[in-house]
Amino acid sequence: MSGEKRNALGKGLSALLNDTPNVQPYQNRNKETASPAEVNDLGSVNEIKLAEIEVNPFQPRTDFDEQALTELSESIKLQGLIQPITLRKIGAHKYQLISGERRFRASKLAGLTQIPAYVRTANDQQMLEMALIENIQRENLNAIEVALSFQRMIEECNLKQEELGDRVSKNRSTVTNYLRLLRLPPVIQASIRDGELTMGHAKAILTLTDPAKQLFIHQHIIKEGLSVRKVEELVREMQKAPVKKEGKQPEPVSYQLQKIQDDLASKFSTRVKLKVGSRGSGVIEIPFLSEDDLGRILEMLDW
């Protein structure tokens, strides 16, 4: 490993970590026999006992693939841990993970007693930001996980979209496209998370502003396995349809009624409206966009 500083976790992270220019190479590959060393300057790699490390409470990812962890642990047994983890010192012989929890877990599985690590100083907000940045750089994240991490960085780290883009080396339009996914109905977000819809499908759906139409398109994608191009064509056809303008806007519904509306919308894959009068009586409206769509809804109602 050369002394040249790497920037693998994204633009702007180096400044957060406050790296020194000369990162000393980690030489000792035999973790079982290596003797613990004193913590050196912030840019060097140190040997830290696994028993002295606690996980980062701000780690945004809590699920780890067991097979992938096992494969990594086998690699560590043979080659050692090539990429050090990053810690902050919180007491005498006590450290907290900033990034690298997967490597930390795999090293435990491999039976190591100590691990190479960078030791940093960072406050809790910086810890969250660094953990989120590392999480975003993972190749196997789905689009919803990325969007949620972006949202957390904006809300909890007080970042603007331009600043967020700088942190993760993405332009503002890319960041915006991910954040827009979180405006979709929950059932569509779940399909993106589960790999049933691609980012291309989602972008096409987002060109429609009506949740009922979004849910209608989603239903057809799942049922018929539509390609992104076919979805784009279907969206264009729907946009040509005349839009009925309503004169008087409805009164805003309460949080409880809104929750019921959202749950029913997810169940029927179409927008549901609740109209409640002053005495508590009211009407449930379940709109449909075609005869086939009506038939689908009637089947769900056991009609």
From TrEMBL:
Biased composition (Polar residues): 17-28
Ranges for domain ParB-like N-terminal: 46-136
Record region (Disordered): 1-37
Keywords in alphabetical order: Chromosome partition, DNA-binding
Record has DNA-binding as a keyword: yes
Family listed: Belongs to the ParB family.
Protein's name in the database: ParB/RepB/Spo0J family partition protein
